[in-house]
Design goal:
- The protein is an alpha+beta fold.
- The protein is 20% helix and 40% strand.
- The protein has 4 helices and 14 strands.
- The chain has helices at 20-34, 91-97, 124-130, 168-174, and strands at 36-40, 44-48, 53-59, 62-69, 74-78, 86-89, 98-103, 109-113, 116-121, 135-139, 145-149, 153-157, 164-166, 175-177.
- A 5-stranded antiparallel beta sheet has the order 13-12-9-1-14. A 5-stranded antiparallel beta sheet has the order 6-5-2-8-7, covered by helices on one side. It has a two-stranded antiparallel ribbon with strand order 3-4.
- The longest helix is centred in the N-terminal third of the chain and has 15 residues, at 20-34.
- The chain is globular.
- It starts with 19 loop residues before the first helix and ends with a strand.
Length: 179
């Protein structure tokens, strides 16, 4: 499902989010063939959620998504970005993507990322090839809308079948091309 065009006056998104099934079927093959492998770097702080809590992820372009951390999920703070974005990761994903460095407080620990993603930057040409506007939403794998705009990266964790957004500024501060 392609999103509708934005209104030229406001550049406001006026359509439903693009579903994961569409992204996996149509964009993921392109990410796997034309994208690059990137490795996450820079330390993060994380804590385990002790009860359900709503987490709003804010990037340099504004609110990216809202997610619910359930008991046992990890709430991660990325100290390497200007907004110190906060996001939620399931225990299963967290265990393969982060390595413990040291406890900082009773509830918070410093971790080193170990994750890799295949990613592709959303250029004007790529957006036009899918007939997507410069700003739109996708439905993230955690079943919430995620804001996307031209210049951002759409990525897939290595070996997985899910697609999500990483804002351009945040991507440049936390990922490097793998050699």
């Amino acid at each position: 499902m392609s999103p509708k065009k934005t209104t030229p006056q406001t550049d406001t998104v006026i359509s439903r989010p693009i579903r994961q099934t569409y992204l996996i079927r149509h964009l993921l093959p392109l990410i796997k063939t034309k994208g690059h492998l990137f490795t996450k770097y820079g330390e993060v702080l994380a804590r385990k959620a002790t009860k359900p809590e709503s987490i709003t992820t804010t990037t340099s372009s504004g609110i990216e998504t809202i997610n619910t951390a359930h008991k046992g999920d990890y709430v991660v703070t990325n100290n390497n970005t200007d907004t110190k974005e906060i996001y939620v990761i399931s225990p299963e994903k967290f265990k393969v993507r982060y390595k413990k460095i040291k406890a900082v407080t009773k509830d918070t620990t410093l971790y080193q990322p170990m994750g890799q993603v295949l990613g592709i930057r959303l250029t004007k040409k790529l957006l036009e090839s899918f007939n997507w506007p410069t700003k739109f939403y996708i439905m993230a794998s955690w079943k919430e809308k995620q804001f996307v705009s031209q210049g951002d990266y759409l990525v897939c964790p290595k070996g997985k079948d899910e697609v999500y957004r990483i804002g351009y500024k945040e991507f440049k501060k936390t990922y490097k091309i793998s050699e």
